[in-house]
Specification:
Length: 330
């Protein structure tokens, strides 16, 4: 069969990726942010794809962006092409192999002392022939960009909090409904309690990473939790790096900090679990779609083993999670 001469044989994957991002966001600014490119460059790529295909893919007005019939027809094909490209890139990235020949797997644990560290240690025991190297990226949004750039392989965090364009290029495995806690200055009135009811934070301003572009999913979770409860998310502030600096800032500003129950001890503060309801942070193991590595297999097995043994995926009766997160934890 003779190929249709109107269809280009060598469409660049970058152009297809721009098209898919805009199709999912239906907004050029958000799509550009999800791909970490300038909006002008994204628009240029979409226009070039339309010229190469000889078809208009979007209807653009000052108020909205919608797919044309040709755009709807192209979308499933574009997704299959990009998925195949991601699989190819992952399979050959930096010499992926089997056994002792496999390259080191770079695993983001987010922060020291969390359950991700336990999963990594168990995976090392399950696959001693693999080199699993820890990294600390501090947030899944930042780690996702590193994974898609090939500078990181695996991370942990709230998958539903990522932009759709990022999620489409990542895979995930639910790990834990992680209870949340509040980090309080030593002399805060609520520090005397063993547990802090969520309602007791009404009128408080709580730090949740606002302004940190690497932890957008965590700040979004805080906004959803605090909505309608009279709790404010603290304004953006420079990130305190290291326990000593964290303790100094805590003693100076006295702002409570939203955290997980496994958050490591910090100077000048106490950690108290939140109750009534118990807010849960939905944690998943997340990796670049198509990644093939025996270390990833070990991590997935370790996460499943620990989740089963310790009931990490059992939600307490009074547990709270955003509705948008529930489908990602099945």
């Amino acid at each position: 069969m003779t190929a249709d001469p109107r269809i280009p044989r060598d469409v660049e994957p970058r152009l297809l990726r721009a098209f898919v991002a805009v199709s999912e966001e239906l907004h050029f600014t958000r799509a550009a942010a999800a791909l970490y490119v300038a909006q002008q460059a994204l628009s240029r790529d979409v226009r070039r794809l339309e010229r190469e295909l000889g078809a208009e893919l979007f209807v653009r007005t000052t108020r909205q962006v919608t797919l044309t019939a040709e755009g709807e027809r192209l979308l499933p094909y574009a997704r299959r092409v990009l998925e195949a490209q991601d699989d190819l890139a992952a399979a050959f990235a930096r010499g992926t192999g089997s056994g002792s020949a496999a390259r080191p797997l770079l695993v983001d644990l987010n922060s020291p002392g969390l359950i991700s560290g336990r999963i990594l240690e168990r995976a090392r025991a399950l696959a001693p022939q693999c080199e699993l190297m820890a990294r600390y990226e501090s947030g899944l949004t930042g780690a996702a960009a590193e994974m898609l750039a090939g500078r990181l392989d695996v991370s942990f965090g709230r998958y539903a909090g990522l932009e759709p364009a990022l999620r489409s290029r990542l895979a995930r495995q639910p790990v834990r409904y992680e209870p949340m806690a509040i980090l309080l200055p030593l002399d805060h009135p609520l520090a005397e309690l063993d547990e802090v009811p969520l309602g007791a934070l009404a009128g408080e301003t709580v730090y949740a990473g606002a302004g940190n572009p690497r932890t957008l999913e965590w700040t979004d979770l805080a906004h959803r939790l605090f909505e309608g409860r009279g709790i404010e998310v603290a304004a953006p502030a420079p990130l305190a790096v290291g326990p000593e600096e964290f303790g100094r800032i805590m003693a100076k500003n006295r702002t409570p900090v939203l955290a997980a129950v496994d958050f490591p001890a910090m100077p000048e503060s106490v950690l108290r679990p939140l109750t009534d309801p118990v807010p849960l942070s939905p944690v998943s193991l997340v990796w670049r779609r198509g990644l093939v590595h025996p270390g990833l297999d070990a991590l997935r097995a370790a996460a499943a083993e620990l989740a089963t043994a310790e009931g990490w995926l059992r939600r307490p009766e009074d547990g709270w999670v955003p509705a948008m997160d529930e489908p990602t934890m099945t």
